[in-house]
Design brief:
Blueprint (H helix, E strand, L loop, with lengths): L9 H5 L14 H16 L8 H13 L4 H13 L12 H11 L2 H16 L21 H16 L3 H18 L10 E3 L2 E3 L4 H16 L5 H18 L22 H16 L4 H16 L34 H18 L1
Antiparallel strand pairs: 1-2
Helix pairs in contact: 2-13, 3-5, 3-13, 5-6, 5-7, 7-8, 7-9, 8-9, 8-10, 9-10, 9-11, 10-11, 11-12, 11-13
Amino acid sequence: MNDGRGLDTSQANRTEPPRRPADLADLTPEVLAKTAGRIADRAVAMDLTHWFWGEGVVLQGMMRLTPVHPFVTEFVDDHLRDGIELGHVNNLAPGAVCADLYGATGERRYADACERMLDWLRNDDAVTRAPGGAIEHWPGGVWADTVYMCGTFLIHYGLHADRPELIEEAGEQILAHAEILQHPETGLYAHGSHEGRTIWNFWGRANAWTALASVEYLEAGGAQSELIREVLRRQLLALAGHQPAHGVWDVLVDGQPENRGILETSATAGIAAAMLRAAALGIEPVRLRRSGWRALAGVHAYVTDAGMLTRTSAGTILQLLPFGYSVIRDDMIQPWGQGLALQAYAAALRETT
């Protein structure tokens, strides 16, 4: 259906109404913990096999919930024995938990794997950079995803190996990506750029990736914290300003007509986690804590009894038109949905226990 302005609103017109969010009084520590446990159990049952970004997001979510979860150790050990796959920045996402295992155990094999990933990042021809230094997700394209997949690896390894220069490298990437992708007026992040031109589609999961990476950097106490704190503050306040009353943001968070009312839960979960953690750092604590809990209450309504987060979009490449973001997979579990949900519940549990 064309709305007269050349916009395809057919998907938006057919979308189902939002579910009623959970009552905050019902989100007790016991309920949060049991729900998170179901989400983790369902993620384990997915039979994750690749050393890639979806798996990395799940593993990081589990580590936020339960330090050194048995599934995490088994997954990483199996891959180190068989040989990890490297070829894209998305392969670095599991590296953050490999670094965490090194910090927890001191076992050299985890550090050796991190060193291999770091060498690949520094020296492989597949890793290209934009003129300002931002690592490209694909040659010619800077994506918000990279800040999380690569940045969390650098931050976690920097912390556990006592190498602050790696944390600063992640900070430089956050700022280089913000220069390209954060809108100078709204503070929201676009998904990415194409051939040097930013495509201003304010995709929810792009905002989740960048906000979580920024929070991780601030929690690590990096030297560029003052700059990144302001970048994050502007972003999260902008997101709070666009949040609907039911808590769950549209797949494009600014109410773009072609996607208006098409809700997306994985982004909402990631943003909720970032807001609660940012509030704990003293960033607009009243506003962000309120918005973060509203988001979690909205997400809670989309977790099934079996622990699957529904209303999660599939793996999404950069779209040149807003309509391209309208596809949501209610019929299929997505690892990043499970992992970001774990991040949200872990952040909420830290507030209540």
